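Dear Dr. H.,

I hope your travels went smoothly. While you were away I took the liberty of generating a structure for the chain from your last submission, since the lab meeting agenda had it listed for discussion. I wanted you to have the full record in hand beforehand rather than looking at slides cold. The sequence, exactly as received, is reproduced here:
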Amino acid sequence: MRSLSLLLIVLAISGCAPSVRPTSMIPSVITRQDSSAGKTLVLAEVTGGEKPGLSNQVTIDKQAFREALLGTLERAGFLAPTRKGEPADYELHADIAGQLSLQIGSLAIRSHLLVSYRLIERSTKKDVWKDAIYSKYQAEGKTYATELQKARQEAVEGAVRENLGQLIQRIEAVVKPR
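The corresponding predicted structure, in token form, is as follows:
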């Protein structure tokens, strides 16, 4: 009986999903040439997402997504320090509306992510842009269960990276330099 209990504990621990790494979710974005002349934004609270649980699913929670989003905005030059104490020009809201990872065949994992974004001009308090961005990413696993878990993690991180890359392109089309 004791060895059965020990076996169940080991299985429960090994079945825990790995956590996502926010730094792995930041896309390779091109930094604006003159970020000091561009408009800036602040990030409002990120909503939605799921708390990591004791299953083999890898999910993104709002805190990890927020860290990746902040890193992306900073790399793109949108979080540059505001000029001489001026407030930021825009406020960005993000809501993780849905996420799903599916095993495709025996070794591949495809992760889907849908995030709703809203960009508000702070001086007028009006929406200047609102959209939902869908992204997906597929990662290949190996024959071992631990490698398949790594593929789950890689697929989620890749879907977030794709989503944030699309976001930067869309923000750049809306937010013009001064």
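Two observations you may find useful: The helical segments are 2-14, 62-75, 145-174. The two ends are 71 Å apart (CA to CA).

With kind regards,
E. W.
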